[in-house]
């Protein structure tokens, strides 16, 4: 090996070591903030944050669906608009928080946990959603169009499932670029978000818009955990920060500036930090435990909420029992969340458990044995 090649490999090794140390120290070893509350081996505030965001996701789809059906907006529209800047950024940032603990696994194991895992649920639930909507597609364009749309869904995410389609893409890109200095990747991600790319295709457009948040969770995990710990230690200061943030976020949203270049990125990052703060504060009171349960089962809610949501919307609109669009939106949101959880409970331990549990035949590596006590949860 030439001296130049040895120097190049040494430099790459140093870059990788620094980047890995930066990320892993976020929650491994002495740098992990003391006092973080855990429950059954899971970080409490992370589950609260997931629950907080998944309910906002269901709320958005429920509200916009009702408004489209009746042709008018309700009072819930303002709530959905307020959450727009941070609803998905926080989800992606949380997904990146624990990535450093698995980034150095061999490719087969990594792809099994971070790509095949989500691909299985995407294909399964995309097919289920498609089967529900296929009769309408056939009525509009014939069965050839149904087949075309189904095949298209493998390269352009279908319906509400684009989040779990993009997550594996993010995870693979982050592993491929882990030897690259993190400021370069972060600035590239920020530039993509600021560009507001619009090709008409879901994958490039949402990649450009969301990658920065997942990568931020990966490289800045120790600061995110420190923020949560600080909010729990000084709740009054955390509440004051939330009030200031809500005023800025609301002003920019309701004045129509929330999607302007640079502002959208700033609001996304600030909003994600606000969700971390409010989630950390929620862990201090038992009243919010149902939200933690929703967070622990966020993937279940995300996959299945469209079924009870659509059924409840059709039933309520047909019956005319509820007149207010905002009230309808709240009821349908609750039905979407509880209905998806009920479906999960119903299939548990039955032959239909494959709906929420990946069968062994779809694992690339042996399924790991459950660990009774784990310091942190993976970003899955």
Folded structure, characterized:
70% of the residues lie in helices and 1% in strands. It has 16 helices and 2 strands. The chain has a two-stranded antiparallel sheet with strand order 1-2. It starts with a helix and ends in a 33-residue tail after the last helix. It has a domain at 18-45 and 88-287 and 348-362. It is mainly alpha-helical and 380 residues long. Strand 1 and strand 2 (42-43) form a beta hairpin.
Question: Layout of SSEs?
Answer:
Elements: H1 3-24, E1 38-39, E2 42-43, H2 44-70, H3 76-83, H4 87-97, H5 107-141, H6 143-152, H7 162-176, H8 182-195, H9 202-219, H10 221-233, H11 235-254, H12 263-282, H13 289-296, H14 298-304, H15 306-319, H16 325-347
Antiparallel strand pairs: 1-2
Helix pairs in contact: 2-3, 2-4, 2-12, 2-13, 2-15, 2-16, 4-9, 4-12, 5-6, 5-7, 7-9, 8-9, 10-11, 10-12, 11-12, 14-16, 15-16
N→C terminal distance: 41 Å
Number of helices: 16
Shape: globular
- What proportion of the residues is helical, as a percent range? 55-70%
How many β-strand runs? 2
Q: Major sheet: size, sense and barrel closure?
A: 2 strands, antiparallel
Order of helices and strands: HEEHHHHHHHHHHHHHHH
Mean pLDDT: 88
Q: Pairing-aware structural class of the strands and helices?
A: mainly alpha
Low-confidence parts: 1-32, 373-380
Spatially, the strands of the biggest sheet line up as: 1-2
